[in-house]
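tokens incoming
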């Protein structure tokens, strides 16, 4: 029983390794990229639309609505980043139904990389929304004494994002593996369905938290760094 897909090594030469985390991550990105290209190559503007286009519009509209509910103005500006995060985590969870597939989000290296993307995106969106001076000034509000605490919060919430996603995704895979060894028929099917639901919830939570952090960074200079609280995350 593997605790993480990092332990599944496909190829190794010296210290260079190709493990399941890397392989499945790139395979998942390739599927998402090719799928997006196929769906968007013949978009229709009339009433006659394909089922795939309808599904795409439902997903995009839903993500934009959630971004707007968080408090971000011009939600389509953040759609590319937050939508990609959601689709990758969600697809990683949904693909667990495929035989032999292990979700890359069950590896701490993958979740840490996703959290680092959020860590980099927050100041970038904050600076583009408020300007460099106003964004840096927010670190010393309401008093310069808060500077080290605000810096620590940036790092700690990034670590919390990575550990939260890793723990929830890995625990689901571990429970299914244990039940499969005990009762190989009914329980694994039920737990797999529960795992799919859990994966979608985790994709939603991860994306909403990223949106909240970006909203706090891109808010007006006089607003609080804690940012708005989304109703769905309450």
């Amino acid at each position: 029983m593997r605790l993480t897909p990092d332990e599944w090594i496909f190829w190794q030469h010296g210290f260079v390794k190709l493990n399941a985390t890397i392989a499945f991550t790139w395979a998942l990105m390739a599927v998402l990229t090719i799928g997006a290209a196929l769906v968007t190559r013949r978009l229709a503007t009339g009433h006659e639309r394909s089922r795939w286009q309808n599904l795409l519009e439902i997903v995009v509209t839903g993500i934009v609505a959630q971004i707007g509910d968080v408090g971000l103005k011009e939600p389509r500006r953040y759609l590319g980043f937050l939508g990609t995060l959601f689709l990758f985590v969600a697809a990683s969870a949904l693909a667990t139904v495929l035989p032999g597939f292990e979700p890359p989000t069950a590896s701490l290296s993958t979740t840490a990389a996703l959290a680092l993307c959020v860590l980099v995106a927050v100041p970038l969106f904050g600076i583009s929304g408020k300007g460099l001076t106003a964004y840096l000034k927010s670190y010393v509000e309401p008093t310069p004494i808060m500077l080290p605490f605000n810096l620590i919060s940036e790092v700690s919430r990034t670590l919390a994002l990575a550990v939260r996603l890793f723990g929830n995704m890995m625990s689901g895979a571990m429970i299914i593996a244990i039940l499969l060894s005990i009762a190989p028929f009914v329980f694994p099917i039920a737990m797999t369905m529960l795992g799919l639901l859990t994966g979608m919830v985790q994709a939603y939570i991860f994306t909403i938290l990223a949106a909240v952090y970006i909203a706090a960074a891109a808010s007006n200079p006089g607003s609080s760094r804690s940012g708005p609280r989304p109703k769905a995350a309450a």
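note: The longest strand covers residues 9-13.
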